[in-house]
Amino acid sequence: MSRSPRVLAAVSAGAAAALVATAAPAAASPGAQVRFGPGAPGAGDPYFPDMGNGGFDVAHYDIGLSYDPGTKGLRGVAKITARATQNLSRFNLDFLGPLTISALTVDGRKAAHTRTGAQELVITPRKGLRKGTRFTVTVAYAGVPRTIDDPALGRSGWIPTADGGLMLNQPFGAATVYPVNDHPTDKATYTWTLAAPKALTTLANGDLTGTWSRGGWTATRWQMRRPMASELSMIAIGRYDVLKGRTPGGVPNITATDQAMKITAENARRFHDQTAEVTDFQSTLFGRYPFGSTGGVVVKAGVGYALETQGRPVYDLGRRPGAIPSGALLAHELGHQWFGDSVTPKRWADIWLNEGFATYAEWLHAERFSGTPVQKSFDDVYATPADDDLWKGEVADPGRDGIFNGLVYDRGAMAVHVLRTTIGDKAFHRLLREWPAAYRYRNASTADFVRFAERLSGKDLDGWARSWLHSEGKPAL
């Protein structure tokens, strides 16, 4: 791989400068013996036992990346600021080959490290890290990232495109591009600094805070100032047409369309304006938009799905050249900004809290903009015969390979609607606003949601939860 140009060193100073000894460990009481142990190599999620790690909590990722079109590889420096939640002798990050590490430090001092298991990067600092200590890990690395192809869950991680690449991480994939504690319960803020040859555009989550050029290369810096799960992080590098503005409600709006999609200027503007319209409409239903900017990216990537990447969803419409997302698709992915992104499930089994509410957001959008009553959307899906696969499995426990199945989306939305008819419209519309406000930037479980809805409505919802979330088969109305 050719060396990165000087622009990366300039623009990634925050990520690249091996940076910062943090607060010293608290002194032990006289005569006390401090025992250190390894952090867990997983976060305890039964669906994905290798994902995430224990013993620490990440506060911030500062990631600098340069893209080389000649090799289609990345050169990166990731600075990770975290806090120990136990006395750590060593700890793990998730990181996948073939990316190779050239340097790794903990608080500016070289640390031992090894790769093991499915995705474990095991790091042993020179001294144990006491519980409560803030520490910084800096990793320099390079290579051509891999793409994950899962028979049940599709493609994720680094997705090469004709003129660059794209990172999409649900349910896993972030570790193909940067070292990470890859589980939704460890949300963190992010800084991205992305460099590429001048002909290419670099995009990421968050607010655009800087753009500059040097020696035929350009760079952008993006700040995601609100906590984000790693599965919602994104970058895109390639030839894009970008539009910037604000929604009528005042939210900064950045949209981009892949030039390979051959989208007309008129349709690119329509995509931009519809994104603004949906963002503002949903803010009237779900409360204040939870992030610093909205937007979206239309790509030709071959993954066959759209994804609610935080603050800037990605829509792969490569099979339909010239196309932009429909209003329903915009409503779904932007609805996720409240349900899934701001409020994120504690475990992957709780994903109906994402997809059920995002599908219901489609129904609300259809009622407002197409005149299709929500009840009709419910009735059309409920008419599915009882022996259809839709009614197999439990909404609140779909299984590892079922997290993107129809029971999570359509049955999840039906469960939301039956909840509405159970507690009444007034309580339900309060719920749409107060649930994402109460758990903003946090994680929540199905049990958390049921308890919250019961407190808000004053109704016993055990029967609803049993029939619509925790049972197989078609519930009676």
Beta-strand proportion: 25-35%
Estimated radius of gyration: 23 Å
Q: Main beta sheet, described? A: 8 strands, mixed
Shape: globular
Can you name the CATH architecture of the largest domain? Sandwich
Task: Explain the overall architecture.
25% of the residues lie in helices and 31% in strands. With 477 residues, it is α+β, with helices and mostly antiparallel strands. The protein folds into three domains: 1-22 and 34-237, Immunoglobulin-like; 239-337, Neutral Protease Domain 2 (Neutral Protease, domain 2); 344-468, Neutral Protease Domain 2 (Neutral Protease, domain 2), CATH 1.10.390.10. The strands form five sheets. It has an eight-stranded mixed sheet. The protein has a five-stranded antiparallel sheet with strand order 10-11-12-17-14, with no helix packed on it. Strand 5 (100-106) and strand 6 (109-110) form a beta hairpin. Helix 7 (406-423) crosses helix 8. The longest helix is centred in the middle third of the chain and has 22 residues, at 265-286. Residues 1-28 have low confidence and may be disordered.
Could you name the key traits of this structure?
Immunoglobulin-like, Neutral Protease, domain 2, disordered N terminus
Helices and strands in order, then pairings?
Elements: H1 6-11, H2 13-16, E1 37-38, E2 56-68, E3 73-84, E4 88-94, E5 100-106, E6 109-110, E7 112-116, E8 120-124, E9 134-143, E10 147-150, E11 154-161, E12 164-168, E13 188-197, E14 201-204, E15 207-214, E16 217-228, E17 235-238, E18 240-246, E19 252-258, H3 265-286, E20 294-299, E21 306-307, E22 314-316, H4 327-335, E23 344-345, H5 352-369, H6 374-382, H7 406-423, H8 425-438, E24 443-444, H9 446-457, H10 462-468
Parallel strand pairs: 1-4, 2-13, 19-20, 20-22, 23-24
Antiparallel strand pairs: 2-3, 3-9, 4-8, 5-6, 5-9, 7-8, 10-11, 11-12, 12-17, 13-16, 14-17, 15-16, 18-19, 21-22
Helix pairs in contact: 3-4, 4-5, 5-7, 6-7, 7-8, 8-9
